């Protein structure tokens, strides 16, 4: 939980830091999702050089630098999911059966293969 105090010392609480910089819950959720995907990529590549990362993902070094620096605004969710697929990480969302009248439930399995 992130807390931000304004000039009047009013306490603002956010469960997602991106809620503090956007007016839309959907936009905040998208930014958080993209940031999380970027962290997974950074972890997956470990100590690899930017040249190695660029070759694996098929992108030039300046784009690798933006990716590894966490510049969330430079990459769409689609592009990041594609990068993850190139290194053997895939997402498989599915609905979970619920009793009639209950809210929809969704699960997401993550499949990891030995690519890269």
| Low-pLDDT residue intervals, each spanning 5 or more residues | none
**Number of helices, where a helix is a run of at least 4 consecutive DSSP H or I residues:** 4
Main sheet attributes: strand count, strand direction, barrel closure: 2 strands, antiparallel
Fraction of residues in helices? Answer: 40-55%
Kindly report the average pLDDT value: 88
- CATH architecture annotation name: Orthogonal Bundle
**Widest sheet, order of strands:** 1-2
Any idea how many domains? Answer: 1
The best one-word shape is flat
Secondary structural class:
alpha+beta
CATH top level assignment: Mainly Alpha
CATH topology: 434 Repressor (Amino-terminal Domain)
**What oligomeric state is this?**
single chain
**Total count of strands:** 4
- Portion of residues in beta strands equals 15-25%
Reading the helices and strands in chain order gives EEHHHHEE
Query: Whole-Å distance between the termini?
Result: 35 Å
Provide the fold topology.
Elements: E1 2-5, E2 11-14, H1 25-45, H2 50-57, H3 61-68, H4 77-86, E3 89-96, E4 105-112
Antiparallel strand pairs: 1-2, 3-4
Outline the structure in words.
There is one protein chain. This protein is an alpha+beta fold and 116 residues long. The protein has one domain: lambda repressor-like DNA-binding domains (434 Repressor (Amino-terminal Domain), Orthogonal Bundle), CATH 1.10.260.40. Helix content is 41%, strand content 21%. The chain has a two-stranded antiparallel ribbon with strand order 1-2. The chain has a two-stranded antiparallel ribbon with strand order 3-4. Strand 3 (89-96) and strand 4 (105-112) form a beta hairpin. The longest helix is centred in the N-terminal third of the chain and has 21 residues, at 25-45. The chain is flat, with a radius of gyration of 18 Å. The relative contact order is 0.11. The mean pLDDT is 88.
């Amino acid at each position: 939980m992130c807390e931000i105090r304004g000039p009047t010392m009013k306490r603002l609480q956010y469960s997602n830091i991106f809620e503090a910089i956007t007016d839309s819950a959907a936009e905040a959720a998208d930014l958080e999702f993209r940031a999380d995907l970027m962290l997974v990529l950074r972890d997956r590549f470990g100590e690899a050089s930017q040249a190695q990362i660029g070759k694996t993902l098929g992108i030039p070094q300046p784009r690798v630098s933006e990716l590894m620096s966490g510049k969330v605004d430079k990459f769409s969710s689609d592009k990041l999911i594609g990068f993850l697929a190139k290194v053997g990480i895939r997402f498989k969302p599915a609905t979970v059966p619920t009793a009639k009248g209950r809210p929809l439930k969704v699960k997401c399995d993550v499949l990891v293969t030995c690519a890269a």
